UniProtKB/TrEMBL annotation:
Official protein name in the record: tRNA(Ile)-lysidine synthase
Function description: Ligates lysine onto the cytidine present at position 34 of the AUA codon-specific tRNA(Ile) that contains the anticodon CAU, in an ATP-dependent manner. Cytidine is converted to lysidine, thus changing the amino acid specificity of the tRNA from methionine to isoleucine.
Higher taxonomy: Bacteria, Pseudomonadati, Pseudomonadota, Gammaproteobacteria, Pseudomonadales
Short name of any one Pfam family annotated for the protein: TilS_C
The species this protein was found in: Pseudomonas gregormendelii
Subcellular compartments: Cytoplasm
Length: 442
């Protein structure tokens, strides 16, 4: 090969310096050229440098018969290098894009394998970055997408690092030939019905023939766009700080923002701020679906608009927008007997109830609102529950999940609401802890 010798080990070690205190390094090991070079580099660096414990993870997608032999190949390579290997079989969900479904299954396995303060290393390189930028440009991506693959990001409880993004494919090929490495050639990488393969085999070679530095300059453009996205993220952080005001219902643990603070921004800044906020909860909508935000924002004051997104819904009520997912989108309808009120009551899919103070007499039961409920209120007589909830500006999405305490057919209390959650004269109070986000809200 004509490729000049490059000091890949030294460059890699320098890139990994900030991560040498991690609890463990996992290498995503497909068995292909790129990940084989990365594994070999790390295994040999570990012989001469103090590095975290290494392990490899091979994900078997089960999409082609040839792949059945790959786990054994990967075990053989890892045994030679003294690196433990974990083989994970995943189920790829059918869908419009097999590439995307396989990627989601693969990264799901990576998240499960990467613990707190652990690092997953993947072998994407500069040519992959150029392909990513070109692919996303054709799909009409914005700044965030055109910034390409980040060199690092959070992954579950740990982090993902791409330490070879400044290395070209030809450098990896040179290293593999020099060290006589053996690797798997995935037949699917030649299938040009897949968009990435078509770009790799049909488009990029023609571009490089005309502009030999195309891969380098495209990677440089991705870096410029990454910097631009960092500035947009800073702007979103400032705008969101103004919208994260205190709500009377912060105790719900449901993410929310003040609508007026967002509505006062330009349309572009609204989308930028919301993108930064929603990215933690859901796959972001494409350009054609941002009309859902405009409809929610501009609906009549007494309306209860909903914007449905991939992993949940955005609701507007009480001058705020609320992110709802998981159990908040399912009705709570089943009554639950509270046989031992001295102990906390775990509500199915709806958190935990506790009594504070003296427990009311009689058999007690928790129900949920059906409509038409009436409650006796001190100094006010009997009042419709709907009116009482309106007076306290209870968000609509909460009303069907608020635990109602009954004794027989008598409504005694509504959890957590002032003047309704207990009886000052009898000295008791009903406290509800809804499911928090880390308990499965989103």
């Amino acid at each position: 090969m004509s490729q000049p010798m490059t000091d890949l080990p030294a460059r890699l070690l320098l890139h990994l310096t900030p991560w040498r205190n991690a609890a463990r390094w996992h290498i995503a090991f497909s068995g292909g050229l790129d990940s084989t070079v990365l594994l070999h580099l790390l295994a040999h660096l570990a012989k001469n440098h103090s590095l975290p414990a290494l392990s490899a993870i091979h994900v078997h997608h089960g999409l082609q018969a040839a792949a059945d032999a790959w786990p054994q190949h990967c075990r053989s390579v890892c045994n030679e290098l003294g690196v433990p290997l974990q083989v994970v079989r995943v189920q790829v969900e059918p869908g419009a894009s097999l590439e995307r479904a396989a990627r989601e299954a693969r990264y799901g396995a990576f998240v499960a394998a990467t613990g707190a303060d652990e690092l997953l290393l993947t072998a994407q390189h500069r040519d992959d970055q150029a392909e990513t930028l070109l692919f996303r440009l054709i799909r009409g991506a914005g700044v965030r997408g055109l910034a390409g693959m980040p060199s690092q990001r959070t992954l579950g409880r740990g982090h993902l690092l791409r330490p070879l993004l400044d290395v070209t494919r030809s450098e990896l090929e040179f290293y593999a030939a020099e060290h006589q490495l053996r690797w798997i050639d995935d037949p699917s990488n030649q299938d040009r019905q897949f968009s990435r393969n078509y770009l790799r085999h049909q488009v990029l070679p023609v571009m490089i023939e005309r502009w030999p530095q195309a891969v380098t300059t495209m990677a440089r453009s991705a870096a410029h766009l990454r910097e631009a996205q960092d500035l947009l993220d800073e702007l979103a952080h400032m705008d969101l700080a103004s919208a994260r005001t205190v709500s009377d219902f912060d105790w719900l643990g449901v993410p929310s923002l003040e609508l007026a603070a967002l509505a006062g921004l330009s349309a572009a800044r609204q989308r930028n701020a919301l993108s930064g906020w929603l990215a933690a909860f859901t796959q972001l909508p494409d350009s054609d679906h941002w009309s859902g935000w405009e409809n929610l924002r501009d609906a009549a004051p007494d309306a209860r608009p909903i914007w449905r997104l991939a992993q949940g819904e955005l609701h507007r009520t009480g001058g705020r927008i609320w992110w709802l997912a998981g159990s908040w989108l399912r009705p709570a309808t089943d009554a639950v007997a509270w046989n031992d009120p001295s102990q906390p009551l775990v509500l199915p899919d709806n958190g935990v109830l506790n009594f504070n103070g003296r427990i009311p007499d009689g058999p007690l039961q928790i129900r949920y609102r059906q409509g038409g409920e009436v409650m006796a209120v001190a100094d006010r007589g009997h009042r419709d529950l709907k009116r009482l909830l309106n007076e306290r500006h209870v968000p609509g999405f909460v009303r069907g999940r608020l635990p109602l305490l009954y004794r027989g057919e008598q409504l005694l209390g509504v959890a957590n609401l002032r003047d309704l959650s207990g009886c000052a004269r009898d000295g008791w109070h009903l406290h509800w802890a809804p499911l928090s986000e880390d308990q499965g809200l989103s």
